[in-house]
TrEMBL record:
PANTHER family cross-referenced by the UniProt entry: ATP/GTP PHOSPHATASE (PTHR43581), EXCINUCLEASE ATPASE SUBUNIT (PTHR43581:SF2)
Residue ranges of domain Endonuclease GajA/Old nuclease/RecF-like AAA in the record: 1-368
Protein name in UniProt: ATP-binding protein
Matches recorded under InterPro entries: AAA_GajA/Old/RecF-like (IPR041685), Bact_Antivir_Def_Nuclease (IPR051396), P-loop_NTPase (IPR027417)
UniProt superkingdom: Bacteria
UniProt xrefs under CDD domains: ABC_ATPase (cd00267)
Sorted UniProt keywords: ATP-binding, Nucleotide-binding
One GO MF term attached to the UniProt entry: ATP binding
Stored SUPFAM superfamilies: P-loop containing nucleoside triphosphate hydrolases (SSF52540)
Annotated Pfam families: AAA_15
Tagged with keyword Nucleotide-binding: yes
Organism of this sequence: Laspinema palackyanum D2a
Length: 466
């Protein structure tokens, strides 16, 4: 999956491809957050904006004959056009995604390229739709078939099924079969997550809006206008973060596949934070330090900033994670000691090897260097196996260079197409792919330059007097 953007915030022109682990690093104010938020918004909303058309004739055939067949290959053949149209529609939604003025995105282009092949033929799909304990119709696609078979499960005179409902369910099924394997379900931990952890009870957007309206003065409140008013409080990723932390009481009733099948990961995470999170029946959130009694539990205000920083990740791993997800973490190093930054890097690598895609932005040289260690140790050489064993690295933590994509947010020369259609080379903010060597790891020059400068200054201080 390749994403191309133009005139998105400070990013004049950039493109990046998702890997199993995607890393964006660079200086402040170079476009990392713009790229992250735009990608998250698309992955969260593509089902609503991607249009699959079902002809009226097909619906009438189903209602008349009780069965119809849809050739899915036609949608695969038109997938580029379908995705392109959805990207155009999504671009119009960017002001809402970023909670910003529409003028800032008037020249923005956001494009997604998917390499959709005939792999969908091997997918088996079955969905039964109904209501009030009555199965109304089924949607079935068998392996090696390119047809979706829709069958009524009730007599056509027994119950009236709205044609719009049929179109919606059929279109949604086609999206599941063809597009969802290439568009992962996103979860984001934004850089604002520590504040959301502290103020989770106070961050009630609906209540705050009402209070804002009531505080406007003596004007009479129009309930309909209040209901329909378009609010843009915060960017969508931050809203999702807040909603996630506010729903912890209901979230803890379910287990993720990691909790079910890979509890060792949760144990490692508990070691990183030095304890565990707990939510009471009264929706009270606490942190319980390891080895302490339950009476020693701490509120988020009393807990360390590191505990708050990793809250979203902890609840995601235990209760929300699904195979094939895209876990997006803005600055995973936030408030963490260097040792825990290294341990988080190893945790992310393990998640990648389990089948969860990872997307991070980072300013941490420790995270990059630890990932380099995991890359360099991932070779079948006796001395490397010995080093891994002596230093406590496990095979499930090691990662290959082919699994990783790294981009540097920076100013660089790019060929830009002007408004007149003519191209010119200019220096602008973009995303530059970083080299990743299977033997030496990631070349993160944005960190290396700073480190080399500091070393040069310190060498001058130490040896300059001689």
């Amino acid at each position: 999956m390749k994403i191309t953007v133009k005139n998105l915030g400070v990013l004049k022109q950039a493109e990046f491809t998702l890997g199993d682990l995607t890393i964006v690093c660079g200086c402040n104010n170079t476009g990392k957050t713009y790229a992250t938020y735009a990608l998250f918004g698309f992955l969260l909303t593509w089902r609503q904006i991607l249009e699959i058309k079902i002809s009226r004739d097909k619906i009438e055939q189903l209602l008349t004959e009780g069965v119809m067949r849809i050739e899915l290959q036609e949608y695969v053949n038109n997938s580029k056009r379908i995705i392109a149209q959805s990207c155009l529609a999504y671009t119009q939604q960017l002001p809402k995604i970023f909670a910003s003025h529409a003028d800032r995105f008037k020249d923005t282009k956001f494009q997604v390229s998917l390499d959709i092949s005939t792999e969908f033929c091997r997918t088996q799909f079955k969905r039964i739709t109904g209501s009030a304990n009555i199965e109304l119709f089924s949607l079935i696609k068998n392996k090696e078939s390119t047809e979706l078979v829709v069958t009524l499960l009730v007599e056509k005179d027994q119950i009236k099924i709205p044609g719009d409902m049929l179109k919606y369910v059929i279109a949604d099924s086609i999206k599941d079969i063809i597009f969802s394997p290439f568009l992962p379900r996103p979860f984001i931990a934004s850089a604002e997550r520590t504040g959301a952890a502290i103020f989770r009870k106070e961050l009630n957007f609906a209540r705050n809006r009402l209070l804002e309206e009531l505080g406007q003065g003596a004007n009479e409140i129009d309930p309909l206008r209040l209901l329909l008013k378009d609010y843009q409080d915060y960017p969508l990723p931050i809203k999702r973060n807040v909603e996630f932390t506010r729903q912890l009481e209901s979230l803890v009733t379910k287990n993720s596949f990691i909790a079910e099948h890979h509890p060792a990961i949760l144990a490692d995470f508990a070691d990183i934070i030095g304890g565990e999170y707990t939510v009471t029946g009264k929706d009270e959130l606490y942190y319980l330090p390891k080895g302490k009694s339950k009476q020693f539990r701490l509120s988020m205000v009393e807990s360390s900033s590191a505990v708050r920083s990793l809250l979203d990740l902890g609840f995601y791993l235990r209760h929300e994670a699904q195979m094939g997800d895209l876990l997006m973490v803005d600055e995973p190093e936030l408030n963490l000691h260097p040792e825990n930054q290294r341990r988080v890097a190893r945790l992310l690598a393990r998640l990648v090897n389990l089948g969860i895609k990872i997307f991070i932005t980072t300013h941490s040289d420790y995270i990059i260097k630890e990932l380099n260690t995991l890359i360099m140790l991932n070779h079948d050489k006796p001395y490397l196996r010995q080093i891994a064993q002596e230093e406590g690295y496990r095979q499930e933590e090691l990662i290959s260079a082919q699994q990783i994509k790294v981009y540097i947010a920076e100013e660089a020369s790019r060929t830009i197409e002007g408004k007149t259609g003519k191209s010119r080379k200019t220096k602008c903010h973009t995303l530059t792919p970083a080299d990743i060597d299977p033997e030496m790891g990631i070349e993160a020059r944005s960190f290396d330059t700073t480190i080399e400068t500091m070393n040069r200054i310190q060498e001058a201080i130490v040896w300059g007097g001689e």
